[in-house]
Amino acid sequence: MFRGAQDLSGVAQGNLNAPLELRWTHKTGGPIKSSAAIHDNKVFVGSDDGTVSALDLATGRLVWSFKTGDSVESSPLVRNGMVYVGSGDGQLYALDAGTGALKWKYPCGDKIPGAPNWTASPAGDRILVGSYDNKMHCVEASTGKMVWVYDTGNFINGTPAVAEGRVVFGGCDAKIHALAVADGALLKEIEAGAYIAGSCAAKGRFAYAGHYGNQVVCADLTAGRIVWTFKASEQPFFSTPAVTATRLLIGGRDRKLYCLERESGKLVWAFPTQGMVDGSPAVCGERVVFGSGDGRLYLVDLATGKLAWSYEIGKELTASPAIAAGLVVIGSEDGNVYAFGEKKDR
């Protein structure tokens, strides 16, 4: 799923050793803003051509493709043999992970750019998704039947995080919302200072997000207040942060990747690129992987911020990397999905 876990922390298992090499590419019919999901030796990804595709993880070969009514920026969620994904046509789709067959679709009132998340309940899994209809929707995973809906009054662009019984998300209303997973009841509503175009990462009682007011914020979801803020320039943040035990990593529209102390928000290092970093970084072992608007994929040392490896794709990378089985998978605005692995002749 998007960011690898329900809390959207963006931390992958294993290690990545430089240099990496290109293993395969797969061409779609449009730019790719969707971040791939990897499960059961398959890559699931959306494209602006309106399709959701399943690819073989080892070779990039197309397994199946499903056509929606509009572009698919949403990252797929794969769970219990199903693929859940939103589309610009305002529908949340549930597809069979093995065949791509449609199981059900749920209509939201407007486009769904963010990824779905999930939560368990005594009655079975539930799927959570935000939409430009200003609402957070909770539906039954097996049927698509509505469980509850929460109206924020403004667009929801990102993916909801799920942690400790809360659904946590930011919106274009410039607030961080914390709802009860069970019934959608409002627990806390925290003024962030500007609208949040990305997603929040949630760890324990804290939520972390970047916003359009050029700041990264840490919010205490129990106390209902902002704990710290970080500002580096007069450029906004669209990236979703990756959060480790001690660090926070986030890309900025000022063309840099930032590493902050998680507890205080103090700057540890900043890595410069030649383009806006709207995609979200992923942490794997002692490395950070991210794409930039300059068309490059970067592998950076987590401790020092020093470049370990980069690859020039050429067109903007606004999607976020997915990491599994030693492979890094990312889609590009050039319409291709790229898979990289450690050099075999190392």
Itemize the secondary structure elements and their pairings.
Elements: E1 11-12, E2 20-27, E3 37-39, E4 42-46, E5 51-56, E6 62-67, E7 77-79, E8 82-86, E9 91-96, E10 102-107, E11 117-119, E12 126-130, E13 135-140, E14 146-151, E15 161-163, E16 166-170, E17 175-180, E18 186-191, E19 201-203, E20 206-210, E21 215-220, E22 225-231, E23 242-243, E24 247-251, E25 256-261, E26 267-272, E27 282-284, E28 287-291, E29 296-301, E30 307-312, E31 322-324, E32 327-331, E33 336-342
Parallel strand pairs: 1-27
Antiparallel strand pairs: 2-33, 3-4, 4-5, 5-6, 7-8, 8-9, 9-10, 11-12, 12-13, 13-14, 15-16, 16-17, 17-18, 19-20, 20-21, 21-22, 23-24, 24-25, 25-26, 27-28, 28-29, 29-30, 31-32, 32-33
Q: Quick recap of the structure?
A:
This protein has 346 residues and is mainly β.
CATH superfamily: YVTN repeat-like/Quinoprotein amine dehydrogenase
Report the CATH C-level class: Mainly Beta
CATH architecture: 7 Propeller
- What proportion of the residues form beta strands (DSSP E)? over 45%
Walk across the major sheet and give the strand order. 1-27-28-29-30
Number of DSSP strands?
33
Give the biggest sheet: 5 strands, mixed
**Alpha-carbon Rg, integer:** 18 Å
Overall mean pLDDT? 97
Which blocks of ≥5 consecutive residues have pLDDT under 50? Answer: none
Using the alpha-carbon principal axes, give the shape. globular
The structure class reads mainly beta
Instruction: Determine the CATH topology.
Output: Methylamine Dehydrogenase, Chain H
Helix content: under 10%
Distance between the termini: 30 Å
Number of alpha- plus pi-helical segments: 0
How many individual domains?
1
